[in-house]
Amino acid sequence: MPYLAGIFFVQKFGICSNSHLIFVTSIVALVIAFLVLKYHKPVLYFKKVLFVVCLNSFLFLLAFETCFIYDARNNPTHYTHYLTSEQQGFFCTVSDLPVNTGKFTKVPVEANAIQANGQWHYATGSSLVYLKQGVDQTLSIGDILYVTCGFGTIQPPQNPDEFNYKSFLERQNIFQVVYTDSANLHKTHTAYSSFSLTRLGCGIKGTVVSILRNVGLSQEAFSICTALLVGYDDEIESSVVTSFSHSGTLHVLSVSGMHTGVLYGILMFIFQWVDKYDRYKRTKCFLIIMVLGLFVLITGFSPSVLRAALMLALIILGKTFSRNGNSYNTLLLSAFLLLLYDPMFIGDVGFLLSYFAVFGIMYLYPILHEMYVLKNNLIRWFWSLTLMSVAATVFTLPISLYYFHQFPVWFIFSNLLIIPISIALMLAAAILLLFYKITIVTKLLVVVINAGTSAMLWFTQLTDDKTYGFIDYISFTGSDVAFSALMIILVLWIISTRQYKAVVWAFLSLTVWMCVSLFTNYKELQQKELVVFSVKHKSAYVLRIGHTAYVHRGELTEKEFQRFLKPYLLNFSGLKIVFHKSDVLKYGTGSVWVSSASAGENGEEMPSYRIVSHNSPISLKTEQNIKPLVIADCSNSYTFVKKLKAECALLGIPFYSIKEQGALRVMIDQ
């Protein structure tokens, strides 16, 4: 807990200037407190308090050190220390599989050297090279690239509550990106002459993807099998991801603890003969941990895989050396070790969902399982899977509602069907990798995998309907997460103790939660708000009057709507969404007009807000005391916006450019 508090403190306030000196002081204080506790003979309560305070202080300050070490920019050789405003030479190594993103090929790289002010400097650090599509470049892991480029930063989100891709990359220590083409990029040679576990893992991942791509699998089967085996999920279509999300089985598409558990089970089955010989148990332990570690490398250090691999490694170590540990301690120890390795995992959704799901299964599943015992083995197996799914969902529900704002109604049914199919596909794909050079076996397995994938996709589409399959647009705030987590704890307290005071506390907490929600809804009901969104070359705005949102999405695709507009709409509970194409929206005594409307003409009153789109000319004649805010959205050209801005300045009319200033969000008083 003190270590977590330290991480949150650093994320909120940053690292203190003298944190290293304070950390060293805490180590000295901890050593002194330990020596006093151990060797000072009189038994004093003060000694224990002193030791606990020093230990917690050390753990709190340890978070400062791990955050400092994790931030690659604190390394004096990091390439960001040599950036200039001019074009620079840059040597880098392809560190992971290139990904086709549509217009570009995204190439993850590690810096080797950078040119600055006429000199070459040794450099380190991760970056992304975006290579224009159509460029005749075949790149693979380990290639050394020479790039002449200017580094650029990822723009922060321009719209309310939009996904912060900049922050996402910074948590992975990627601070600058490169956009280039064939004229400025040259492949020199392939590096990997020296051995490295990381290079070995990336090489195996690249080989697996290459084999599965060329054996005749359908695109859906290829993308899903590579996701199941090595975590390469970049080529899964967005519609497939959406279907899995709506069915409550999205975890299947990302290599996770379930897949690690399957691998562990296979390894235990292979090495079960070793249990007869005590002298080989340590060798078995070493080999299994090595394979699990290699799997972690191949999957790119996925948080859920790291968690599962660490837990399984600790368990097999305990069994090998006859140490029966507490399962909760094992879970928390693995979390602590992962946060030592990467403190930014604390904000990773996969990390949070993984640990809360496992904790739910460990704690709640035995309670549910003891309530009713079935005799039939097959039915008992399905019942156990159902209870595990319920236990995991109960503990992950607050987090999933907060991040995804939807609830899959048929998650139990979907998991019972899709998880067994995914495990079968994973095993079939693994066998295919072993025997892909045997034509008959390959053709048979390709048919089986393609059919299995089609069946799995069909099952996910059964519940991909918002009328009965899932509940969408669930507003869930941080306070809702806190109250729902408290309610789960109190309900479990009631079940385990059956005490009256637990019921009273639960009732009081629920009452406070309802009062907070009612107050929030009342405030929303009184609000009138206009939001004009920043979408490249598109026009989109929302006028929200209380719990009704009038949405003009223009020519936005469904993907653009989900990315730019929906995150804002998810903030309000019970929101009624009305899609419209009208040029005029009225509220109280004011109105919003788009450029094609004839404001101020034919006796109409002047609008309060004037949205200009698609380079449409407007009349800027205004009454003396009425000067509407003119808003130029992103569908206008830069030349048109510049001219309109100058005209508004001459007439003293307030002006706002979405292209230059980002989305506009303004509360309306009338």
Describe the structure.
The protein is α+β, with helices and mostly antiparallel strands. Helices cover 51% and strands 15% of the residues. The protein is built from 20 helices and 20 strands. β11 (528-532) and β12 form a beta hairpin. The radius of gyration is 29 Å and the shape is globular. It starts with a helix and ends with a strand.
Distinctive features:
670 residues, 8-stranded mixed sheet, 5-stranded mixed sheet, globular, alpha+beta
> What is the number of strand segments?
20
Compute the number of helices.
20
Low-confidence residue ranges: 599-603
What portion of residues is helical? 40-55%
Return Rg in Å.
Answer: 29 Å
User: Ends: how far apart?
Assistant: 48 Å
Gross morphology: globular
Largest sheet: 8 strands, mixed
Q: Provide mean pLDDT, rounded.
A: 85
Q: What is the SS-derived class?
A: alpha+beta
Strand % is 5-15%
